[in-house]
Structures are given as C-alpha cells and as structure tokens.
Amino acid sequence: MAQPATSHPADAANTAAGLVDRIRALQPLIREHAPRTEQERRVTPEVVAALTDAGVYRMNVPRRYGGYQSPLHTQVDALSEIAAACGSAGFMALIQAGCAYIAALFPDEAQDEIFASPDVRVGGTLIPDATAVAQPDGSYVVNGTSAFATGCRDADWHLLTVRVEPAAGTSDSPPGPPGPPELLWAAVPMTDLEILDDWYVSGLAGSGSNSVVARDVMVPAHRVLPVGPLLDGTIASKTNAADPFYGMPVLLLFCAWTPPNALGLARSALTEFTERIHHRGITYTFHERQNEATVTHLQAAEAAMKITCAELLTTDFVTTIESRAATRTPYTSAERARIRAQSGYTTRLCKEAIDLIASASGASSLHREVPIQRTVRDIHALSLHSFVNPTTNLELYGRVLSGLDAGTPFL
C-alpha cells in the first residue's frame, strides 16, 4: 500500500464554488514568485502550498474522496487565472489536474491508494518511452526514462505511459507484420522513481518538467490502465463508469485544459502593455507617452481582438464537451478533429497577440524584471505542445474535411 499523499490539506471552509475567486486572490503571490519559479526551474513551495490549500488539485478528484469534480468551464477559468500570474505555475496545474482525472479512470482499488488525500498531486508523462514486462501474477516490471514529467518534484504519484514488451527470450507477437505496441498508464508513487535534473529550457522553465527514471519498478495489476480501450471510451473504474463527469474523452479534455494557459498569458500581456504605455514614450519619435500614438491604438485593439476570438473559440469547444457529457452523445471523427483544431487555433491567436504586444513593448521590455519577456518565451514553448500545436491540429482537421482519415487515434 502506498503512503498517503504528503500535500497540505485544503481549508475545510473551502468549497468548489469559490475556487476561481480563491485563485484570483492568490495572483499577487503567484506573480511575485514567478521570477524565482523560473530561476529555480520549479514552482516555489509557497505557491504549490497556496494552490493546494485553495483546492486546485481537487478539481478532478472524485467527490467520494473529498474532490470537487469541478465543471469543465470552471476548470478552464481556474487554470487561466493561474497562468495569468505565472505561465509555469499554470502549466503544472493543468498537467496535474489532467492526470488526476486519468487516475479517476483507474480500477477502484488503485483510486483508494492514489486518492488517500483529496489534495494529492498526480503527475504524468504521455510519451511511451518506458517499457513494461508482464509477470505471471498480472503485475508489470517497468523500466525506462520518461521526459517532460511536469511538476515531478512536487507530485505524490506519477502516471507513466509505457510500452508492453515481451519478457526476455519470449515472443508474444502473433505471426504476420508487427502491430503497434500495447500502451498502458502505470500509476507509480514518486518515491519509486528517480528524478533527473535535466530541465534547462527557455520557456515554461519553472514548470519543473524533468525526466523521471523507473528501474525495475513493480506495478501491480490494479495500478495499470490500458490506453487503447480508454481512447474508445472504456474505463476501468466501476464506480465512476456511470458518472457523466468521467465519460468525457481524455484527449479532448487535454485540448480544453491546455489553451487556458495561453489565454492567461495573453490576457496578462495585454494588461501589462496597457499599463506600461502610460509611463514610457516611443524612442526616436515625438511621442512622450506611448498611449498617445495611433500605432499603439491599433496594436492594442488588434491584440485584444485576437484574445477575444480565442476566448470565443474556447467557450465553443468547452460547451460542446460539457453538453456531450451531459447527454452522453457520441462524437463524430469530424467533431473530435474540430475540437483539437480549435484548441490549437486558440493557442495560435494568443501567441499572435503576445508577439504583437512584445514587438510594441520596446527594448526596455527585454529586462528580466519586465514580465512580457517571460510571457513570450512561455507562449512559444506552449505552442510546441502536441495537444495544441496549431499546424499539426489544423492538418488533422483538414484531412477529415477532405474526406480522409484523421491519421491518428489521438482524438
């Protein structure tokens, strides 16, 4: 039996309904710690504790364990408010919120272990770089290094994506051309994993996305979740199987959880810009105040419109996911591809808004104490994430619109 989670218990007076307001109240603290978060390459303990006490990590924890099962639109609002204060803190929160949702799809016995505290922090890696070898008793031995383990130093559990491989000297493969390997999520206590100090990056540098290493880690059968059936809508949890909240497609949820990071960054950039233009001029021009220049009016309005469009797109696909969950209506491939495309396009619009603001902010904005330079690097990093990569997502949707298969099961 794994040890109970070591996170700080949330205040008993906290409720799910007040989550977004509590996060907004924390923004000054999160913003103050953002430079240190980037320098130390992990979210500071003070911010982790504050987010925990606010109940952020309860958003997707089942109510029977003290969780909130927060509506998706509430989660989007919460994650965007964190990102508005610090992109790295927002990114860590979205990954751990998402992985808690996946944990709630595991067999109930595993959930009893993982959700020993409703404030448990669950991380995960979604790239199958580690391997698992089945044992006669149904357990697996896991080995390998997995990169991008966001927030691993502050996590209690980690969901490793692993490829199932036959034991040495055996072959379980049927005759004929080899098919894709079976993929599993394996729930592992962080105490069973080694953390490599290898997160040296230019954007989202404070997210603490180091690599983790499994060395002959034994994972019992009840702590594995096959990825294939999950993508088809089959979950292992008997208790949560009939709950519409846990019937939402995981991959579409990550398409909903990730854009709020871009929205928060873009909103904060516009707010900072419209404040700074009152206190600086435009060098080598007659404008003593940037806010008086016509070019500034055009830049501010253009950025604001891009952000508004991104907000409307987000509302559209979040509403679709929530309504489908409520009615248990299946998706078509075109609808899934459209949601993924919308998430990427939202991120592209936010990036365009931030790039426009950055180009209008002058050389003084390059100083480390000016947040826009960090925002630029964070949005560029986020745009490379596979869930919201604009070009890839548009291609997938375009294939479907052109009458072809999407070319991926990850919809």
Describe, in short, the structure shown.
With 411 residues, the protein is an alpha+beta fold. It is built from 12 helices and 7 strands.
Describe the protein.
This protein has 411 residues and is α+β, with helices and mostly antiparallel strands. It folds into three domains: 99 residues, Butyryl-Coa Dehydrogenase, subunit A, domain 1 (Orthogonal Bundle), CATH 1.10.540.10; 116 residues, Butyryl-CoA Dehydrogenase, subunit A, domain 2 (Beta Barrel), CATH 2.40.110; 152 residues, Butyryl-CoA Dehydrogenase, subunit A, domain 3 (Up-down Bundle). Helix content is 45%, strand content 13%. It contains twelve helices and seven strands. The chain has a seven-stranded mixed β-sheet. The chain is globular. The two termini are 34 Å apart. The N terminus is likely disordered. Belongs to the HpaH/HsaA monooxygenase family. Keywords: Monooxygenase, Oxidoreductase. This is Flavin-dependent monooxygenase. It comes from Streptomyces sp. SID12501. GO terms for molecular function: acyl-CoA dehydrogenase activity; flavin adenine dinucleotide binding; oxidoreductase activity, acting on paired donors, with incorporation or reduction of molecular oxygen, reduced flavin or flavoprotein as one donor, and incorporation of one atom of oxygen.
What is the fold's blueprint, element by element?
Blueprint: H1 19-40, H2 45-54, H3 72-85, H4 87-103, H5 108-114, E1 122-134, E2 140-149, E3 157-164, E4 183-189, E5 194-196, E6 210-219, E7 224-226, H6 227-231, H7 250-257, H8 259-276, H9 294-327, H10 333-359, H11 371-382, H12 390-401
Parallel strand pairs: 1-3
Antiparallel strand pairs: 1-2, 2-6, 3-4, 4-7, 5-6
Helix pairs in contact: 1-2, 1-3, 3-4, 3-8, 4-7, 4-8, 8-9, 8-10, 8-11, 9-10, 10-11, 10-12
